[in-house]
Amino acid sequence: MSKSTIQKLPASLLVCLSLMAPQSPLQAEGQTHHYDHVKLHSSASAEVENDTLIAVLYAQKEGSDPGSLTDSVNRLFSQAVSEAKGREGIKVQTLGYQTSPIYRQQSLTGWRVRQSIRLQSTHSDRLSKLLNQLQSTLALDSISYAISPAQREKVEESLTLQAIEAFRKRADLVTKQFGRNAYRLVEISIQASDRPVQPLRMRANMMALEGASAAPTLAAGSQTLRIEATGTIELQLDR
């Protein structure tokens, strides 16, 4: 293979060549070397609108009587869960229940009881109105947006086809540039790569909006979904 042939490859092409010299007799026995192998990488991405709103709220009480505190939190949660389950298109999940001691100057001064609830919906307007109502009794811990499983699967399926097609075109290009007639696919790995949106933690003075008359204004935003294909091809010798 001449240097002029290699120089014809596009500079933007991500190619790692492994064209190895014949094995030396001094090399350890049992080693397997692969000749004319080329590592390739391709990807496809798309900007996808977040279509699922997720909110976490909690009830927390402090005092000297754990039993009384538990009853109070349970009543608040019973009302909240009942109200949320009565709304169409909203998923409800109760989270961790915690009872913890409160110490001041190494002395036990009371107890803290806390329980959280997770609400999720693809109807952000409905959930926004519910949040406005629940915040009269519960505190808002975090809000985040995500891509629904159905939407993610649909987009990733399309991106997978695009990434594979890009890989095949790149493999064809490399094969022709090296003067070979064909290549053999040795291995390929296809995986999704994206950064989930982190929940937005609410400041303490924004947690309780008791008496608020309007639902919170929320912006869904978007995420970049990416499918990456990384593999190895073997350039076939002319026949």
TrEMBL record:
Q: Which UniProt keywords apply?
A: Signal
| This protein's record includes keyword Signal | yes
Q: Which InterPro entries did the record assign?
A: 26kDa_periplasmic_antigen, MoCF_Sase_C, SIMPL/DUF541
Q: Which GO terms describe its molecular function?
A: catalytic activity; molybdenum ion binding; pyridoxal phosphate binding
The reply on keyword Signal is yes
Q: Which domain of life is it from?
A: Bacteria
* All residue ranges annotated as the MOSC domain in the record: 119-239
**GO BP, one annotated term:** DNA damage response
Q: Which residues form the signal peptide?
A: 1-28
In Swiss-Prot or TrEMBL terms, this protein is called: MOSC domain-containing protein
Organism field: Candidatus Thiodiazotropha endolucinida
Its lineage reads: Bacteria, Pseudomonadati, Pseudomonadota, Gammaproteobacteria, Chromatiales
